[in-house]
Amino acid sequence: MSDWSKSKKDLENKELEKMANNASKFLGGILGDISGRSASVQILLGALSGWATGYATMKVGKVAAFALGGGIILVEIAHEQGLIQIDWNKVTKKIDKVTDKVETAVTGQSPSWMDKAIATAKENIPFTTAFLGGIFIGIGTA
Fold first, then answer.
1. Which of 50, 75, 121, 133 has the highest count of CB atoms within 10 angstroms of its CB?
2. pLDDT-above-90 percentage for the chain
3. Is 8 a domain residue?
4. Which residues contact 141 (CB under 8 A, 6 or more apart)?
5. Under 8 Å CB-to-CB from 136, ≥6 apart: which residues?
6. Do the domain assignments include residue 126?
7. Is 19 a member of any domain?
């Protein structure tokens, strides 16, 4: 790594550290020791911080779900167009092993209705992958 890029990275790290410290001081000043505040202030601060956390989580979650769903659909389109080759037998064998283990661990019984769902999904791989991608896009745009 060159000295220039190292010094640039150090400068960026110092700026990020300074921003983090400023944010910590700001939040510490607002929240501080909330146990000494009145119940209504605690409720207000809890509701506002919960809303902000939920809002940020939904925004990040939507972007991630949209990207994941779109990626799944793009991979399936690329496969259908012959741009990439996917060994579906290998993929489905791994999925079978994982689902069998999960179902056995959760229910303590061997797979039953899950076998039927997996068999149907195996017979319609393009639909299944596009459906899963659509689910993620739907979650991301909700």
1. 133
2. 1
3. no
4. 62, 66
5. 65, 66, 68, 69, 70, 72
6. yes
7. no
Q: pLDDT digits over 17-46, tens only?
A: 887 777 667 666 665 666 666 777 777 777
Cβ atoms within 10 Å of 95's Cβ, excluding its own = 14
Q: Which residues of 34-66 are buried (b: 16+ CB within 10 A; e: fewer)?
A: eeeeeeeeeeeeeeeeeeeeeeeeeeeebeebb
pLDDT at position 3, please? 64
**In degrees rounded to 5, what are phi and psi of residue 84?**
-135, 155
Give the amino acid at 32: G
- Provide the 10 A C-beta neighbour count for residue 126: 11
pTM above 0.90, yes or no: no
Q: Is residue 11 part of a domain?
A: no
Domains of the chain: total: 1
Domain of residue 112: give its range: 38-141
Q: Retrieve residue 111's tokens.
A: 């797979």
Mapping DSSP onto H, E and C, the string for 11-50 reads HHHHHHHHHHHHHHHHHHHHHCCHHHCCHHHHHHHHHHHH
